[in-house]
Amino acid sequence: xxxxxxxxxxxxxxxxxxxxxxxxxxxxxxxxxxxxxxxxxxxxxxxxxxxxxxxxxxxxxxxxxxxxxxxxxxxxxxxxxxxxxxxxxxxxxxxxxxxxxxxxxxxxxxxxxxxxxxxxxxxxxxxxxxxxxxxxxxxxxxxxxxxxxxxxxxxxxxxxxxxxxxxxxxxxxxxxxxxxxxxxxxxxxxxxxxxxxxxxxxxxxxxxxxxxxxxxxxxxxxxxxxxxxxxxxxxxxxxxxxxxxxxxxxxxxxxxxxxxxxxxxxxxxxxxxxxxxxxxxxxxxxxxxxxxxxxxxxxxxxxxxxxxxxxxxxxxxxxxxxxxxxxxxxxxxxxxxxxxxxxxxxxxxxxxxxxxxxxxxxxxxxxxxxxxxxxxxxxxxxxxxxxxxxxxxxxxxxxxxxxxxxxxxxxxxxxxxxxxxxxxxxxxxxxxxxxxxxxxxxxxxxxxxxxxxxxxxxxxxxxxxxxxxxxxxxxxxxxxxxxxxxxxxxxxxxxxxxxxxxxxxxxxxxxxxxxxxxxxxxxxxxxxxxxxxxxxxxxxxxxxxxxxxxxxxxxxxxxxxxxxxxxxxxxxxxxxxxxxxxxxxxxxxxxxxxxxxxxxxxxxxxxxxxxxxxxxxxxxxxxxxxxxxxxxxxxxxxxxxxxxxxxxxxxxxxxxxxxxxxxxxxxxxxxxxxxxxxxxxxxxxxxxxxxxxxxxxxxxxxxxxxxxxxxxxxxxxxxxxxxxxxxxxxxxxxxxxxxxxxxxxxxxxxxxxxxxxxxxxxxxxxxxxxxxxxx
Length: 775
Prior knowledge:
The chain is mainly beta. The chain is built from 8 helices and 35 strands. Helices cover about 10% and strands about 45% of the residues.
């Protein structure tokens, strides 16, 4: 029996997700102790294993309407961007003894440089068909779609290939433990109720070769009715693929920039549901896959849906029933014989005219082969109808009949969240410095060039569960001030909890990423350092979403001491021969002791640039502070500061134009240290003005732009307005205005603006190149 898989077919970006789910393996070790945590789990696992090991040959042929949809995006702090989306619909005619026949009902794709609207009438429709092969009734039902029923290779784990251990295979008890759970009752159309029982699959140790999840088993037959699972450990390509490991050891990746390493994949959820056809055979109903691939700072969330609507099934029992009725043989005059396969295909096509009057023709020169089985295609005579077919499902971010709903997806996530965290085996660790990671090199005017190193390890913290340990250190070559941070992190399906201690440089605008690569390059090359910095020493506790999710919220409690910092360097490459040039001074922070908390909520709706997008950012921060004893400065004080920002991007004129809007403001109650003020200036807040042109206890700002959309990006005109200071000083005359033109690619991922500030003496002509804009 074959339990491996080969991934074949075009599925362009689905391979990012599916290509990492490689051959599952059966194991040879037997009889591990403590495998079953209760007697019911033992009987369920035995029944399911017996069912898994038996090829179901009762299904001879079936017809199904199969709809599939895929989306892959790029994750950034502001929003997720859709890089690729695909929807397809086919009618599959599967027969046990013959090639599969696939009637292509619809196919469309969208990615940068090519929109769905531009695909009408195109002839390279096959590139847009993500569908690969119909479901094999005799194949594995857990790793749905990943198995190849004709592979007779041995399934022993080895070091030459990446593999996943099947929890129902012989020897699985050496890697997994099993526990029974609640029952799930399925109501059948005739009123009967079918009881299934949950079987939790618990890996004995966190391992990329093992899954963690829950299976719902029909206890009498051992049939798998539902499965929800994920990888028990994040996949790291260089660590977990032997060939890449060897290349890394030989130094073949030394020229790959650290910003694009490591290469990881987190398969956060796979959910498979089956239906009981005619109360006789279990056939697939739907499948949902979610995950995130990453190459260093680039994060790619990927999701895929498959819906099966079974239209007809012929089983061995059906043929026996016909034989028992002694049906007379068919009239030979009505039997059609064909000389060639092409002739048979042409005849089949002539019979297929759907309700919309669309005629289909065979493609004799196009086939797809996977697992030894070939699929042949019938397509509409007029292929332009493929992108507008009524059979096509909506994009994956919309609910649709036949696919897992938002409520069901929530149930799947809850199922995974209820499972215990897999224990950690040993203490896996990694150490990196400088060039090896994107955030371990930086340059700014208060510490000069700074080199960092990081040690990461994972261990079991007893009753607290698995814990990640991260120790990061930095040394600035100009200020010679050591900085360090130690984090202890507990991660689950729903959240990350982080306890940290630190002595680190901190930007006064924590969301502007002034310690990132972009600002470092601007400072080093052009002498434009937009940050204001202070030193913070203390401890904090942070609550964040899981790593594979967008950071839509963050809560933090802290107690720390602040120290002011001043400029230590005056070097930028483009000013190397300008003896009169120097960096602008750093805003001096108040040296205070402070304790407080902050919470940021930043939901975003919409990822497709062809549709409206909305974002909201709400922030609240409160604290109590004092000058250290012995300084003779002031007494204790408290403050609360809040802000809100609305962001909107709306397509106009059939998507040829887009309008973007940002508007918001914030204020402070009480007296806050200087470093807790609001700062305006620079590309993210007020274009046409230098960083920190305005700052104070309150602010308001807005921007409006109109962009012409082209296949490769946008060209826009914009205007910004902003003010910061004391609330009582806000008047129309105090507002600053800036205007300009800009261009971007990938829905604002890379943006360049040419702006001019209209108000003297602050305004200036500026050129800014930055990342992550609204348009």
